[in-house]
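Annex B.
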Amino acid sequence: MQGLFRAVRSCQEMAKVAVLRHSLGGDPAKMKKLFARLGCVTSMHQYKGLENTTVADVLRAKEGQQVGPWLWCRSDDIVHDAAKKMAENNVGSLVVLKPGDKQLIAGIFTERDYVKKIAGDGRPAKFTRVGEIMTDENKLITMSSDTNILQAMQLMTENHIRHVPVIDGRIVGMISIVDVVRALVDQQGQDVKRLNDFIKGNYY
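CBS domain-containing protein: predicted structure tokens.
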């Protein structure tokens, strides 16, 4: 159990320090002072990997998720069909494209949109268009594939969003807060291995 607690604490420290390091521009003096104040025991050199990790790196790590029709729907699609596509592909959001053959973005459709505007408002999913309940393009937040993973995390937390389309002139993928957390956790090495061993039942 002590190994589990150490692993969890290490992951928590990593997320906390990574955000602080990024927001302070990596100033060593400021970081050292904050480390002492917050009681962080992890040294700064462990976070250099995150500074060099981009959204493109995270997308490459998502095996078997090449860009394709599973990633989007059209604004005139039926909500029931869009929700079914999300369930079949195990994703929490779809980029919404405008009607037609071109990839012109109209907004984003997420699980939250479904819960609040279909289940919450009692609308019939089979008779509602995606465009009626999606998050509109003027409120849509996107990022490019060369965005640093710490910037991505900051963008998501500041705007209280869990899914962000990745656009490089065209749709190249979707990144979620789960992907960001996984990138953080991947830096933990042996601590994460001990945590996984515990979850898989290798600890009594």
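The chain has a mean pLDDT of 77. Residues 2-38 form one domain. Further annotation is deferred to the next reporting cycle.
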